[in-house]
Amino acid sequence: MFDRYQGGERAVLVHVDFPDQNNQEDLTEFVDLTTSAGLEILGIITTSRSSPQPKYFVGTGKIEEVADLVEQEKADVVLFNHSLSPSQERNIEYLTKCRVVDRTGLILDIFAQRAHTHEGKLQVELAQLQHISTRLVRGWTHLERQKGGIGLRGPGETQLETDRRLLRERIKTIRKRLEKVERQREQGRRSRKRANVPTVSLVGYTNAGKSTLFNRLTESRVLAADQLFATLDPTHRRININEQQSVILADTVGFIRHLPHDLVAAFKATLQESREADILLHVIDASDERREDNKEQVYLVLDEIGANDSPLVEVYNKSDKVDGMAARVEKDPETERYRVYCSAVTGVGLDGLFETIAALLQQDWVETVLRLSPAEMALRGQLYDLKCVQSERITDQGEFIIEVRMTIADWKRLERKNEIDLKRLEHDSNLLT
């Protein structure tokens, strides 16, 4: 019932150029995705359209060309570099006599191949079930019939309705398990807060070199491969950035343009690591011609998951592959973000990365005194959860005068969560006794 194909299958690729930036996809990246899934590419058919055709996504003549190539090459699957509707998939399959998988389905299959931990498998299964729940009708006309036979006749539900109900129940079960995983991750983050160990999270476009950099900084052996989505399951290691300071470094899943929303929802617990990080290291492939576009795609995803509060460092990895790009540290005058040019493979420029992290950690703290009314007890509880309360006293009016020390990222998260400006709650520290 599930659209899962094994490595080594033969595929025909279909790519459409649209003038609208929101619908544009990159053909080179599509080829990389296909090879990462272990498929053999038999041919690539490209075309241009102003908008998708409702029935076949591409024109009638072009879809017949696809069908001819499938028959000629004996292809097993047709891959579209775009998101297709369930009816479009069904229509194309009927015409080509071949399985059809869109971009979202291809990414989901790669994730399924890469998931190794129990959590990762649950997250991928949830995303797959959410994706396939709208596609049950395709190719399953017999599911419309009611069950027959002794004891099964009557006005009971159709097989299609049964499958939909089973899918809903399975999705509900997986979500409950992932909620448990999320609570466990939250406990881990709280213990790191109590130990006063900052978290630095690696984020970036897929195949930018995050795992290679992680291995170089931590002397670990996390899988690092020249393929898209080599890393799915987050990994944590404690490292010393200087003689006085240590941090927890987290390696996370890579991003991609038009990341399927089902994946964003399914990987909520994993992406939470980036949301709660004290510093984000945005790893950028300096040798990639599409690096500026890829940067923007990463910032879109960070904004979507609410991870834009933490200080961010742009790490231009693979700078040794670019002529004239020397290892250095600079500060963008517009965004005031640090840029570190280095190479994870050779190790050149990593000293500058350590110095930048240390400098950010020194200026990353807010030390102030807040005056809270009895009506703001929820905020007081959140401050204690963050382990940032240094001292507290209660006034004769029942107000709480609280001395706090927290990171700028936590300060911004509190403001966003409570929809308030914490500055207006600041109290004259000279009055604290």
TrEMBL record:
| Binding-site residues, GTP | 204-211, 229-233, 251-254, 317-320
* Positions in coiled-coil regions: 164-191
Q: Name one GO molecular function term.
A: guanosine tetraphosphate binding
The protein's required cofactor(s) are namely: Mg(2+)
Which Pfam families does the UniProt record give? GTP-bdg_M, GTP-bdg_N, HflX_C, MMR_HSR1
Query: Could you give one GO CC term from the UniProt record?
Result: cytoplasm
Subcellular locations according to the entry: Cytoplasm
What InterPro entries does the record point to? Answer: EFG_III/V (IPR035647), G_HFLX_dom (IPR030394), GTP-bd (IPR006073), GTP-bd_M (IPR032305), GTPase_HflX (IPR016496), GTPase_HflX_N (IPR025121), GTPase_HflX_N_sf (IPR042108), HflX_C (IPR045498)
Q: Where does Mg(2+) bind?
A: S211, T231
Q: Using the UniProt record, give the first listed, main subcellular location.
A: cytoplasm
Per UniProt, the keywords (alphabetical) are: Coiled coil, Cytoplasm, GTP-binding, Hydrolase, Magnesium, Metal-binding, Nucleotide-binding
Domain Hflx-type G, chain residue ranges per copy: 198-365
The keyword Magnesium belongs to this UniProt entry's keyword annotation: yes
**What Gene3D superfamilies does the record point to?**
6.10.250.2860, GTPase HflX, N-terminal domain (3.40.50.11060), P-loop containing nucleotide triphosphate hydrolases (3.40.50.300)
Query: Which superkingdom does the taxonomy of this entry point to?
Result: Bacteria
Subunit structure, as described in the record: Monomer. Associates with the 50S ribosomal subunit.
Q: Which family does it belong to?
A: Belongs to the TRAFAC class OBG-HflX-like GTPase superfamily. HflX GTPase family.
Q: What does this protein do?
A: GTPase that associates with the 50S ribosomal subunit and may have a role during protein synthesis or ribosome biogenesis.
Q: What is this protein called?
A: GTPase HflX
Q: Species name for this entry?
A: Pleionea litopenaei
